[in-house]
Amino acid sequence: MSTATVQEPTASSKTRLSTAAATRLVALREISTQVRSKSFIISTLITVVIIVGGIVATGFFGGGDDEDQIPVVTTGISQDAEQQVEQSGFSLTSADSMQEAEQLLRDGEVEAIITEDQDSPIGVHLIGLDEAPVSAAQQLSVTPTVEVLETDGADSMMRYFAALGFGLIFMFVAMGSGVMIMQNTIQEKQNRIVEILLSAIPARALLAGKILGNSVVALLQALIMGGSAALGLALSGQLAFLQMLSWPMLWFVLFFIPGFVLIASVFAASASLVSRQEDSGSVMTPAMMLVMVPYFVVLIFLDNEFAMTLTSYIPFTAPVSMSVRLFDDAAEWFEPIVSMGLLVLTTALVMALAAKIYSRSLLKMGQRVKLSAAFTSND
Amino acid sequence: MLELQDICRSFSGKQVLHDVSLSAERGKLTGFVGGNGAGKTTTMRIILGVLAADSGHMRLDGAELGSQARSRFGYMPSERGLYPKMKVAEQITYLARLHGYSKSEATTRAVDLLTQLGLSERLKDPLEALSLGNQQRVQIAASLVHEPDVLILDEPFSGLDPFAVDLVLNVLTEKAASGAVVLFSSHQLDVVERLCDDLIIIGDGKILAAGDREDLRRRHGTLRYELASDADLSWVQNHSGIRTDEATENRVIFRAEESAAQQLLQDAVQRGPVTRFVPVLPTLSEIFRDFTNDSAPTLPQEATR
């Protein structure tokens, strides 16, 4: 294109922005306005508290392996027996007489008295104050040696939670950011700033910036959620769980990026079809469905191997389904790569399509733009 | 000079611009008037490259209009729009950066311009917290922050109080004086009449008339004369070859051919001292009405809204 420089006034450092630079600027604005908004900060804090608190609470109430040592008093038992008791995880006090021991129990210093008893199967006798000292008894109980055959498979409970976790994180983040993109796009259209923006930068830079910015925010949110979960697990001492998660976790993040960009494109293109927030309902529903499907798939079909395999190749459900399968160790090494390829390809296609719809409907105000009209327009 | 040549544009099969050709000169204020749906906004959007033309050419200073030249265009859309929740200075800085300024330069420009427009106290407020008049100033800043040398303003005066009108007027006059192309549309013909140097009238997607404002007034509409005298002028009404529009004892406004008017003047001079004899040019509203009545009576619906 030729340029007009007949009356170029005062020199300045200003040049026409490249699409990439414009995209970056738009993305930065999206990120900074969102990250600084009160609602974002508050909802993020609440999410962190719920996740960390939830996991710590579950670990605290459910687990029992690292409870505090139970204080007991021993009296009249052999050195050998005393040692055994101590090894079973009690904090020991020795009393010289039964009376002294009883006094300690009544004062609440200890929870039980342990004495010798030849009739008892393990040779000791437990005395509680006003109820049977169950926890102490449990701790003294003899358990058989335990072993599981398939140690590398995740146990079913963990598996369920992991699947739920992947599904929920993806759904929440995609939904939150999707709605944000939609509102943003409609708002720009509704208050016509879009005309000023488009007179400065091309529509595809605006779209790309919006998707990029919101994807970064979404990824950040997902990382915060994942980080909170990790923190919760670490706080409640369930580190084994964490180690198991690490590989699928990385894949999840890898899948999340194109998966989210895919969703974001759909949301942006849908939003560009309407020009008022009130009209957003009709175009939002299909996009919302796409966001919720991955979650419900893992919720319903978690034990259906065929369905999981199938959905781990469908681009919209792949990020969650493939992550769950990887977590289960149910996928061959090449499967995530193939699925990722499909996802990236679809994302590129949908983005191109979205850019077309977006740039063609952005300036059409009033009635909802029909998809067919968006495609046949020549802008 | 900004030139459009034979621009056509259709929306879903309906042609809204028919071979629109117009030009706007540097250093002049060019008014662009037309009824609702006449094609003003569409034309402006095409000039800005926000919409594409189906056919036709656009040139700036003789060179085909491209995106590089357009980066020096400033635009104020008819329905004002900025981010309501974004801080004023940040917003203008953002727009400046989109136009290609570096971060520091954009910030300086934004702050300077807003200060110039009397908004130095409000730089850190979100736009929605400002009064409408102040929001309008921010809007002006948005169209000026990148130092445009072509200003396209769609209804810059609509909904403004007299202070804001003056503010916008000053800005436009200054821009034009500095050698910029200033093209603005308006419904308020009295404002256009007071302000613009050149005029373009569009109706039903066609350019109906264009040119120097005074020239247009002389060439179009019905020519009338005003005659005032110290003597009684009641006799004028019976004079042949003229039609009086208004008549008081010492002053008449009448329509006549040039020769009949001169004859009347001579008669008047003989009857007493003539204090005033001038041709009365038609007002823009009259010309505008003449033109729009001539063009197709059915107004096309606003296709772009």
TrEMBL record, chain A:
Entry keywords, A to Z: Membrane, Transmembrane, Transmembrane helix
Q: What is its main location?
A: membrane
An annotated GO cellular component of this protein is: membrane
Q: Which Pfam families match?
A: ABC2_membrane_3
* UniProt membrane topology term: Multi-pass membrane protein
Q: What residues form the membrane-spanning segments?
A: 39-61, 160-181, 218-242, 249-271, 283-302, 333-355
Record domain ABC-2 type transporter transmembrane: where: 38-355
Location comes to:
Membrane
Q: Does the keyword Cell division apply?
A: no
The protein's GO terms of the molecular function aspect are:
ABC-type transporter activity
Name the PANTHER family for this protein. ABC TRANSPORTER PERMEASE, ABC TRANSPORTER PERMEASE PROTEIN NATB
This protein is called what?
ABC transporter permease
Query: Which species is listed as the source?
Result: Nesterenkonia salmonea
Species lineage: Bacteria, Bacillati, Actinomycetota, Actinomycetes, Micrococcales
Automatic annotation (TrEMBL), chain B:
Q: Which GO terms describe its cellular component?
A: plasma membrane
Database matches in SUPFAM superfamilies: P-loop containing nucleoside triphosphate hydrolases
Instruction: Quote the protein name from its UniProt record.
Output: ATP-binding cassette domain-containing protein
Per the record, the similarity remark reads: Belongs to the ABC transporter superfamily.
Q: Which residues form the ABC transporter domain?
A: 2-229
Q: Name one GO biological process term.
A: response to antibiotic
User: What is the membrane topology here?
Assistant: Peripheral membrane protein
| Database matches in PANTHER family | ABC TRANSPORTER ATP-BINDING PROTEIN, ABC TRANSPORTER ATP-BINDING PROTEIN NATA
